[in-house]
């Protein structure tokens, strides 16, 4: 039997988290301020969601719009605060002014996560050299996924790159799971699954009423059914 594909859903609050789990989500990405593409939520929100659901929760570590790390000392403090309220998985990723990975910032933040698993987020889609970024991060403790659309504009443009990177799985820098998100639609799924990609990330697609509305259990369930071959 083939392994169940992973479905990750963006949650902003407890209501979202409960609906996503009920619809069949395997994991949550927890953020606030979606207008800024997702920033670090409050410690109280993290604690409340962890108490409300029993699926894994990945907490965003990002303090401002854009992909610059900003105040790394503050980021480190926020990461420690999240660990203090029980967060066990994270999402992060920082670029320097030249579009390369800000390895110092990443290493400093990862250094306080105690080996927790984490995703390098869509900063990779803005990197000047994706291959160099992957190889620079290779071997960092806890890194197990890249959230990517294959292109800054989304999966429509990035699909060929996603398929090409999937074909390199197992090479240095390519051992991590490809978690596809960013303009992802149901019609993309068969092409991705056929390439061996088995992790999918949705935000707006889980909210028929838009970002002003909550996650829909039914919408998540539709994605779950397609991923399961239903």
Automatic annotation (TrEMBL):
It comes from the Bacteria. One of its GO terms (molecular function) is copper ion binding. InterPro entries: CutC-like, CutC-like_dom_sf. Belongs to the CutC family. This is Copper homeostasis protein cutC homolog. It comes from Streptomyces cupreus.
């Amino acid at each position: 039997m083939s392994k169940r594909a992973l479905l990750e859903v963006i949650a902003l609050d407890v209501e979202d988290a409960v609906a996503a789990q009920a619809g069949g989500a395997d994991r949550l990405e927890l953020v606030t301020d979606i207008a800024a593409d997702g920033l670090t939520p409050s410690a109280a929100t993290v604690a409340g969601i962890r108490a409300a659901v029993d699926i894994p929760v990945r907490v965003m570590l990002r303090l401002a719009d854009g992909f610059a790390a900003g105040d790394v000392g503050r980021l480190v403090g926020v990461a420690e605060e999240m660990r203090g309220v029980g967060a066990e998985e994270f999402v992060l990723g920082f670029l320097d002014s030249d579009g390369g990975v800000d390895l110092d910032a990443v290493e400093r933040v990862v250094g306080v996560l105690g080996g927790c698993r984490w995703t390098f987020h869509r900063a990779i889609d803005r990197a000047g050299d994706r291959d160099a970024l992957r190889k620079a991060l290779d071997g960092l403790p806890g890194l197990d996924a890249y959230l990517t659309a294959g292109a800054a504009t989304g999966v429509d443009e990035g699909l060929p790159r996603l398929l090409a990177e999937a074909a390199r799985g197992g090479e240095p820098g390519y051992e991590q799971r490809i978690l596809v998100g960013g303009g992802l639609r149901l019609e993309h799924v068969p092409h991705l699954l056929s390439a061996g990609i088995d992790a999918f990330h949705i935000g707006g697609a889980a909210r028929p009423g838009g970002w002003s509305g909550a996650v829909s259990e039914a919408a998540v369930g539709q994605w779950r059914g397609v991923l399961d071959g239903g």
